[in-house]
């Protein structure tokens, strides 16, 4: 039997490709030349172990903050399209430098901008959402045996402009690329060893969690845990991408984020999270009639503000006015205040109050779903510490309390010890399956 060369080539093409990993390095992991070289070596180790590697990099160190400050020096309200042109450069720098370092280690690397990598987003500048990842350029480069570096945090909009994905957006780039190319895992290399039961800077006995479910990680990211951008977790859950958060400075396993049915029985409470980066807006004298809340929150949504805990006090007696309070990220405050000015006028709202001194503490745990009494224990713990609760919000696996910002460290420590989350409190987990 004769075999012609074209069918041989076809057979070769059908051979299953080596497994692909996506490795994402955060800003501190590429902050200087030594660290870029260290990241390059870690990438090369994976390649030499037979993996196809796509690395997604963040901007170096404080670069993004410095670029924002530069813009504010020349313009009080920088144009958002130009802002994206500016901010997207930070990640390009990291990728080009890392590609050079990898080439010097005897491998062939290629760096790609978000746009070159086929990351297509909507048109909302500085907060764009990924609509599609056309991974063919990445795949072609992998097939040519290259290590591919993709600039995180950016894409190209449907109207062909450069966009960025919001602070921390490189995580989402990494997860989206992992989903598009069918990577076996998306590794997030960072300056902490994984996801902890509380911020170790506040709680020294906080425990590294071997596994966390997508649902828990979503609640944790939404309530202040900084390890992963919220959108990256949403994206991972929706596309079934396994995330491994680990240290870029030491070896050893970090935290694996995976679907709930892959996790084993979980303790009642998994972690305490906190945030002091939110503000509360209170609207006094809101007319008590259908459509008022819709007008207020519609305007906020149109302005792109992410509203969390909402409380409305029902007025006592007919014809009285209601009071509505809610929390939003401090960075959304200017946009929110602008949006509210217009509705306040048309609805006849008496007063708009802003309070930046609030903090939020939350406890998160999938085990909470089936156990009563967790909320009572949270309130009791804070009460015993003399910490006043100003607002409360819950989900089936989260309880959040708004308190004064300066009481946050104390509240986090008290809750962490009340639920026994520390190193000594819990039997070692067996880790992911
Ligand atoms: N460089 C961007 C930021 O500082 C994106 C990222 O690091 O994920 O937010
Ligand atoms: Mg980050």
Q: List the ions, cofactors and other small molecules found in this model.
A: aspartic acid, magnesium ion
The name CATH uses for the topology of the largest domain is Carbamate kinase
The CATH class name of the largest domain reads: Alpha Beta
As a whole number of angstroms, the C-alpha radius of gyration is 24 Å
**How many DSSP helices?**
12
Average predicted local confidence, pLDDT: 92
Give the name of the CATH superfamily of the largest domain: Acetylglutamate kinase-like
Distance between the termini: 47 Å
Number of strands: 20
**Structural class by helix and strand composition:** alpha/beta
Largest sheet: 8 strands, mixed
Low-confidence stretches: 428-433
Strand order of the largest sheet: 3-6-2-1-9-11-12-10
Strand content: 15-25%
Q: How does this model look, in words?
A:
The protein has 433 residues and is of the alpha/beta class. It folds into two domains: 17-191, Carbamate kinase (3-Layer(aba) Sandwich); 273-429, VC0802-like (2-Layer Sandwich). It is 35% helix and 24% strand. The protein has twelve helices and 20 strands. It has helices spanning 5-14, 33-48, 63-74, 80-104, 136-143, 170-181, 214-222, 230-239, 292-302, 333-347, 374-384, 408-418; strands at 20-25, 52-57, 109-112, 119-121, 130-133, 147-151, 154-157, 162-164, 185-190, 211-213, 243-247, 255-258, 271-275, 278-287, 310-313, 321-329, 351-355, 358-364, 391-395, 398-404. An eight-stranded mixed β-sheet has the order 3-6-2-1-9-11-12-10, sandwiched between helices. Strands 5-4-7-8 form a four-stranded mixed β-sheet. Strands 13-18-20-19 form a four-stranded antiparallel β-sheet, sandwiched between helices. Strand 11 (243-247) and strand 12 form a beta hairpin. Helix 3 packs antiparallel against helix 4 (80-104) and helix 11 packs across helix 12. The radius of gyration is 24 Å and the shape is globular. The model is unreliable at 428-433 (pLDDT under 50). The protein binds aspartic acid and magnesium ion (MG). Residues 27, 58-59, 64, 90, 152-153, 167-171 line the site of aspartic acid (ASP).
């Amino acid at each position: 039997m004769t075999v012609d060369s074209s069918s041989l080539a076809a057979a070769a093409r059908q051979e299953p490709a080596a497994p692909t990993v996506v490795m994402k390095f955060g800003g501190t992991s590429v902050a200087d030349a030594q660290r870029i070289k260290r990241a390059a070596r870690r990438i090369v180790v994976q390649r030499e172990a037979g993996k196809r590697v796509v690395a997604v990099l963040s901007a170096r160190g404080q670069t993004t903050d410095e670029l924002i400050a530069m813009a504010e020096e020349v313009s009080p309200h920088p144009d958002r399209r130009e802002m994206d042109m500016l901010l997207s450069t930070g990640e390009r720098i990291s990728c080009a430098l890392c590609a050079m370092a990898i080439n010097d280690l005897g491998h062939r690397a290629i760096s790609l901008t978000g746009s070159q990598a086929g990351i297509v987003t909507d048109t909302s500048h500085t907060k764009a959402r990924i609509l599609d990842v056309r991974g063919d350029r990445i795949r072609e480069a992998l097939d040519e045996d290259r290590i591919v570096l993709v600039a995180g945090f950016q894409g190209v909009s449907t109207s062909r402009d450069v966009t960025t994905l919001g602070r921390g957006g490189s995580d989402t780039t990494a997860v989206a690329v992992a989903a598009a190319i069918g990577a076996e895992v998306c590794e997030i290399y960072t300056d902490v060893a994984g996801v902890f039961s509380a911020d170790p800077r506040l709680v020294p006995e906080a425990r590294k969690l071997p596994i966390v479910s997508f649902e828990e990680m979503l609640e944790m990211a939404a309530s202040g845990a900084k390890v992963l951008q919220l959108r990256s977790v949403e994206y991972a859950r929706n596309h079934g991408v396994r995330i491994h958060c680990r240290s870029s400075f030491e070896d050893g396993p970090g935290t694996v984020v995976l679907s709930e049915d892959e996790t084993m029985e979980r303790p009642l409470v998994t972690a305490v999270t906190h945030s002091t980066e939110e503000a509360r807006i209170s609207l006094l004298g809101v007319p008590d009639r259908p459509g008022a809340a819709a007008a207020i929150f519609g305007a906020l949504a149109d302005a792109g503000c992410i509203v969390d805990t909402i409380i409305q006090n029902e007025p006592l007696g007919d014809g009285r006015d209601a009071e509505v309070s809610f929390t939003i990220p401090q960075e959304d405050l200017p946009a929110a205040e602008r949006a509210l000015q217009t509705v306040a006028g048309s609805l006849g709202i008496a007063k708009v109050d802003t309070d930046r001194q609030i903090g939020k503490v939350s406890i998160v745990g999938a085990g909470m779903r089936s156990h009563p009494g967790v909320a009572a224990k949270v309130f009791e713990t804070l009460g015993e510490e003399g910490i006043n609760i100003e607002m409360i919000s819950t989900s089936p696996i989260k309880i959040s309390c708004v308190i004064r910002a300066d009481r946050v460290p104390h509240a986090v420590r008290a809750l962490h010890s009340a639920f026994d989350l520390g190193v000594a409190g819990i039997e070692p987990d067996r880790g992911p399956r």
